[in-house]
């Protein structure tokens, strides 16, 4: 039995889109952030960090969206969300998954939660602004690397494209949103056109503008 603990639009969106791409049955369990349920004793037993998402796969309880995503590619290789093990393409896939999680995704914590990075609340806006500027530079590099390719890995779609799509979406309220970079916009449109992605967005109740 698979169960994904989610909140609409949160980092759970990556594994949610993947589960829809895979087409496997799973339970979708809302973590009610309105009630701070991610910090409840019950949820902290699943993820002691009090963050969303968590995937339960039988006896396995997994936190960290990127780890969940990598696990899903291994568990359901037939879905083709990652290249074959041991290939150069697989290594490129790891590069993107790790880069996206430990660089832009981590930076978004400072953008969305600047108060966590200061002892003086008055400094929070400056922290947010600096995080936005670092994110701009990160998206510029990603855009250069993507170039005119269809997907991050070239002609082959992978979970890394779903990850990038989620991160482009998160930046929609930034002064210079990632969608303003033409090739990132085009990639996000291609991801958005996928029926599995449409289904995940629809079930989470996410409405346009998506990114
Ligand atoms: N590195 C973690 C980050 C997860 C994360 O920051 N989740 C956010 C939502 S996108 C969250 O739970 N926020 C609520 C909180 O921090 O209390 C992962 O990828 O799973």
UniProtKB/TrEMBL annotation:
InterPro entries: Glutathione-S-Trfase_C-like, Glutathione-S-Trfase_C_sf, Glutathione_S-Trfase, Glutathione_S-Trfase_N, GST_C, Thioredoxin-like_sf. CDD domains: GST_C_Beta, GST_N_Beta. Residues 86-210 form the GST C-terminal domain. Residues 1-80 form the GST N-terminal domain. PROSITE patterns: GST_CTER, GST_NTER. It comes from the Bacteria. Pfam families: GST_C, GST_N. Belongs to the GST superfamily. PANTHER family: GLUTATHIONE S-TRANSFERASE GSTA, GLUTATHIONE S-TRANSFERASE-RELATED. This is Glutathione S-transferase.
């Amino acid at each position: 039995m698979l169960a994904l603990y989610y909140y609409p639009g949160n980092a759970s969106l990556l594994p949610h889109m993947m589960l829809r791409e895979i087409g496997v049955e799973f339970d979708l369990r809302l973590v009610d952030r309105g009630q701070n349920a991610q910090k409840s004793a019950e949820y902290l037993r699943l993820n002691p960090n009090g963050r969303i998402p968590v995937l339960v796969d039988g006896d396995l309880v997994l936190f960290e969206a990127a780890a969940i995503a990598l696990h899903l590619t291994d568990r359901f290789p037939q879905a083709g969300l990652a290249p074959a093990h041991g290939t150069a393409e697989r290594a490129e896939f790891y590069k993107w998954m790790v880069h996206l999680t430990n660089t832009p995704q981590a930076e978004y914590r400072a953008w969305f939660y600047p108060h966590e990075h200061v002892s003086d609340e008055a400094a929070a806006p400056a922290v947010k602004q600096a995080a936005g500027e670092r994110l701009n530079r990160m998206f510029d590099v990603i855009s250069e690397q993507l170039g005119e390719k269809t997907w991050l890995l070239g002609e082959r779609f992978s979970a890394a494209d779903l990850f990038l799509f989620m991160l482009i979406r998160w930046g929609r309220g930034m002064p210079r949103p990632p969608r303003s970079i033409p090739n990132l916009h085009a990639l996000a449109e291609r991801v958005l056109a996928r029926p599995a992605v449409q289904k995940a967005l629809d079930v989470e109740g996410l409405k346009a503008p998506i990114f």
